[in-house]
Write a structure and sequence with these properties.
alpha/beta; six-stranded mixed β-sheet; binds iron/sulfur cluster; Rossmann fold
Length: 245
């Protein structure tokens, strides 16, 4: 049996460990255990990582979707068709992104949870993008994750320098377990998966937007430019905060 085929070891709650208050039947992992599990999951496929997350945390598990493409959704649905998918409708998305949300929802029959943001009194993104992301995106994610034990995202190390050290499994600032099943995937891995599995992509990805956020804060990138160069272009900001919290 190769390393990749070996079963994933689940570290269970030892005697003296605190019980999971959300679901006492579920194990609680210490930070050291999560680091050990993360190192182990480096060696297995994204599908096995997702299976580990589902087996350990479902139904107290959600996944976020940016709708740049449906790669993680496609992978996750094959493990758990009922998995909760969270999309944060900031009110500032491109029409193409909202159309992609609807297309993906219908295609997979998604258990989709739209977090809708109330209209802001002023264009906060213009005056103070840091607070805009914090109030609009991070605040809605906090709401979406209330009562959850773990969440998954499509975060990848190759996306940005700030993400280069992202573990497969870690604990976020909320105390929840954060799982990044495709953290090790390169851009080529993503492109190959999309091609081989006929995965839905946001049409903007074919028009110079390799990384898609809110419309006022996303511009197309030129050939050879950093894929995230179009995010908050000209501003001293490169992350919305979803992966910092
Ligand atoms: S990406 Fe721009 S519009 Fe969207 S939440 Fe952040 S600052 Fe606001």
């Amino acid at each position: 049996m190769t390393v990749a085929e070996s079963p994933i070891r689940t570290i269970t709650n030892g005697t003296g460990s605190p019980y999971n208050l959300i679901d006492p039947a579920r194990p609680v992992y210490s930070d050291a255990e999560l680091a050990e599990i993360s190192a182990e999951l480096e060696k297995v496929s994204a599908t096995k990582v997702i299976r580990w997350a589902v087996e350990n945390f479902s139904p107290h598990l959600a996944m976020t979707a940016s709708m740049t493409d449906a790669v993680l959704i496609d992978l996750a649905i094959k493990v758990d068709p009922a998995i909760e998918v969270v999309f944060i409708d900031t009110g500032y998305h491109f029409p193409e992104t909202l159309e992609t949300v609807e297309e993906v929802r219908r295609h997979y029959g998604l258990n989709l949870r739209m977090m809708t943001v109330a209209r802001q009194a002023e264009e906060l993104w213009e005056a103070d993008p840091e607070n805009c992301c914090s109030a609009v995106k991070v605040g809605q994610l906090d709401r979406a994750l209330a009562g959850k034990a773990a969440w998954m995202s499509g975060l990848r190390r190759a996306e940005a320098e700030s993400r280069a050290g992202a573990p497969i499994v870690s604990r976020d600032l909320r105390g929840l377990v954060k799982v990044s099943p495709i953290a090790t995937w390169t851009d080529e891995d993503v492109a190959a998966y999309i091609r081989d599995n006929d995965v839905i992509v946001n049409p903007l990805t074919l028009r110079g937007y390799p990384s898609i956020g809110c419309e006022p804060c996303t511009s197309p990138v030129a050939d050879g430019e950093d894929p995230r160069a179009g995010r908050w272009r000209g501003k001293d900001k490169s992350e919305c905060g979803l992966h910092l919290a």
